[in-house]
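RECORD TYPE: inverse folding
INPUT: structure tokens
STRUCTURE:
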């Protein structure tokens, strides 16, 4: 049984169902093409009229969408990872900063800590559960420092995402594909905070 490739149908066929434009290929070429497709390559017809593999050329629009999605994923992952923080007792832990789960909690703790400080209750005890699942007790002043650090942590991450989004826009305006391809998310904007 012979195997054929159809440029118009962009598929493989056998003798009984081959279209008029079908090109006969060997089993070896057939499996090579199948493996290339699995890797994400595409099939084109070369100057000799034979099907060959080539890397998929990503359009500029696809590259832009991919870079913007990469930035959003990077921001979400960094926020989900949390903020490294040295607590007042010297313990290093991670303060959770997930927008949907932790942001409201941190805001509530910040407000409560400021209210306690304003009421003169500097020795009040507040609790915070860190990513390690350990509960820490802090004074209002320590909680304010922690929540301010968490806010600054998120602001640095947001600033990095905005900087990268601006770089994407600038690369598109300049039609600079190389600059666009070079844009990557890094978490180098995060530093460990200390109480």
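DESIGNED SEQUENCE:
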């Amino acid at each position: 049984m012979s195997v054929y490739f159809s440029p118009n149908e962009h598929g493989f066929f056998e003798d009984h169902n081959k279209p008029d434009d079908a090109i006969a290929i060997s089993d070896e070429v057939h499996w090579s093409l199948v493996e290339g497709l699995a890797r994400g390559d595409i099939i084109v017809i070369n100057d000799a009229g034979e099907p060959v593999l080539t890397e998929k050329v990503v359009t500029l629009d696809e590259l832009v969408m991919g870079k913007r999605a990469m930035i959003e994923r990077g921001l979400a992952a960094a926020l989900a990872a949390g903020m490294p923080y040295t607590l007042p007792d010297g313990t290093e832990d991670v303060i959770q900063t997930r927008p949907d789960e932790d942001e409201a909690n941190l805001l509530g703790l910040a407000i409560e800590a400021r209210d306690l400080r304003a009421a003169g209750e500097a020795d009040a005890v507040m609790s915070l559960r860190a990513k390690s699942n350990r509960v820490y007790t802090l004074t209002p002043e320590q909680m304010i420092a922690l929540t301010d650090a968490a806010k600054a942590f998120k602001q640095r991450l947001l600033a990095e995402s905005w900087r990268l989004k601006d770089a994407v826009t600038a690369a598109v305006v300049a039609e600079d594909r190389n600059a666009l391809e070079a844009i990557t998310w890094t978490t180098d904007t995060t530093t460990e905070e200390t109480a």
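NOTES: Residues 149 and 155 are 10 Å apart (CA to CA).
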